[in-house]
Amino acid sequence: MKQQHIIMLLEKGFSIILFLIAYSIFGISQSSITVKFSGQLDGSTYQCLDSVKVSDISKGWTEVVYYPDTIAILSETNNLGTISSDNNALCQNMPNPFNCTTTAELAISKLSDITLQLVDVTGRILTVYNGLFDSGVHKFEISAEKPQTYLLNAQVGTKSYSIRMVNIGNGCGNAIKYIGESQDITAKLECQNQFSVGDNMRYVGYTTIDGNVTPSAIFVQQQFVSQHIILNFNSQLPLPEVTTLDARNVGATTATMQGRALGQTQAIGFLYGTSPYDLQYNVIATPTLTEDFFAQITGLSPNTTYYYKAYAVNETGTATGELLSFTTEPSSIYHDITVQFSSRGHSTNYQWLYLYIPIDSVKVQNLTRNWTRTLIFPDTVMNVDLNNTKLDVEGNVGANDQMVYTGYTTYRGIVYYRQINSYLRSETLQFMFEIPFCDDFFVHIELTDCEPITYNGITYTQNGHYEIEHYQTSYNCDSVVILDVDIRNQIFNEIVVQTCDASYTFDGITYTESGIYQRLYTSVHGCDSLVSLRLTIGNGFTDERDGNSYCTLTIGNQVWMAENLRYLPSVYRSSEESYTESRYYVYDYQGNNVEEAKATYNYNEYGVLYNNIAAQTACPAGWHLPSDSEWTELEIYLENNGYNFDGYVDTDTDRDTHNVIGKAMASQSNWSISDISNSPGWLQEKNNSSGFNGKPAGWKHLNGLFKHINESAAWWGTGYYSNGNGWDRYLFFSRAHCTRSHNNKHIGLSVRCIQN
Question: Would you say 752 and 626 are in contact if contact means Cβ atoms under 8 Å apart?
Fold first, then answer.
């Protein structure tokens, strides 16, 4: 049985190698991810989308998908372009890979004869479907007999379309069957920019509410798989989210200030001045095609520090970004002539554009006076003083001399150059290098077994990625075949459960005491699968003030609430702030009705956000807000009793020497995804071994903004820092430790109470 399993895997690997041949024959594109968007108003009502702005944060590009095309196709292949205006499209089959059968949709814009063909990796046509169809989206069921890669070709009139499909099943036969017309909206846009699986993506939807174009809440995550994303809108227009960006082009008397505003705005600009406490100047900004904006400032004083911050205004109010600064240059030396060089690049026929290419050197030839000089990077700016010709050039020189400038750059070991003919004068010259685009190609063969795996005569005993073939094209691009080995000696899953009930039932067995209980199963691969239930049966109590019940747990000598406090005697909008009076907030709720606030998802899931004044008296009788030293006692106990994620047991009384307890304190869900090992956002099922169950409730930030939900959990403590800020503790989705911090008293954080 095991030999048959290995043979099947080898056949699968061989089919992938054959796919390399098919790639060159048929022009198969690389894999893609499909992201579908829907709108939701006030957390429950469907809202039609006008458009969705899709941004790849990792690669720095933005594209817009317009209604009704509310599906974006993110592809690892560059420069796909958009499907032509005939609106015909053969959509990627779902699921893919598939087990014997899968479905695919074909969209056609008018009455057409169509032909569908199922083709194997050798180019052999296995089955054909012909039909006459009216305009619309038509769904087909595809069956494939063997585990290998296939092409599905569609001929619509005179146009052809193809998709790649991977079958992992056996024995279904080769067939194409018409299912019927689909009701789904089909994507007509494939994003033109390059995407890699796991890129950090940002999605913002736009809709029209009461005649106003309204943005959705921003959705940011790493994109690993195809997904249906719900974009949430608020009927009450939120304040813009404003970020102050670093200034650029700072000279002696000029500078360009930059900012970013997410959300609807009526006016944008900057406040600036020479004192951080007196931003006496205001300048209206110039918008761009994205959320960024800028303002060019002149008349500044040389060698002076200026402070500035961006702002944006809408009908709800004014929001500002962080306060930044820049220092102008000293008075510059005047030169009669200055020639500056920059560069860009493009591939053959301008199919790919490089926004920036570094210049290695510039050869300067004066044809009028017959001399040559080479400028080496980074000294690629030429200054000429006509009264002192030895400043930057050798030999005689005069204005309007006939010049030839040759720029050089190196790409993948090959030197490219470009010439510009000009007369000697002050100017900026840009070399446009023609460079062939190089897209490395990788093929992965995946092998999984419970024991060491032998492939092509080599036995692999450890998991890993092994390069087994390496080719190089005429442009020095890499073509690599990689063997992915996964030896599953034992699969271990840990389930952490905390309950206030007197018992807990798991897999038919009822447990009445806290402890670690293990069950052994056999996985689908025939390997042992060990499930460990880490069970905490705790106590609970009810707050007599409002009837809210809470779980509690004992950690060391302390008894803590295992949930965030939900006591809400009154509620305030995020803009209603105070340093001296109690304020209570519910994330994203902008009203003053307590019952409305208590009905929201964020209240029931994350509790209440308190300013520092309210937090001091928020806990019920018999409980109190933990002091800074009580927080420290908790951290030291976790570090010294096996709750560091790396397994290290600390022995000292210093909370900072080995603090890797963030995952032990964090809840097992709702965190933003992180690729930082040992952080709460990484493998969230391994969180909460301590039972503390810290949820990412975010916080009420300065300037009336709610921020960092799903990214941060933060709790107040008693006592104050030297500047009057209150002590707090917080967890962040991409950090491994529990952080000690202090914050302004009027921001809103969560509260965890500790028993007297």
Answer: yes
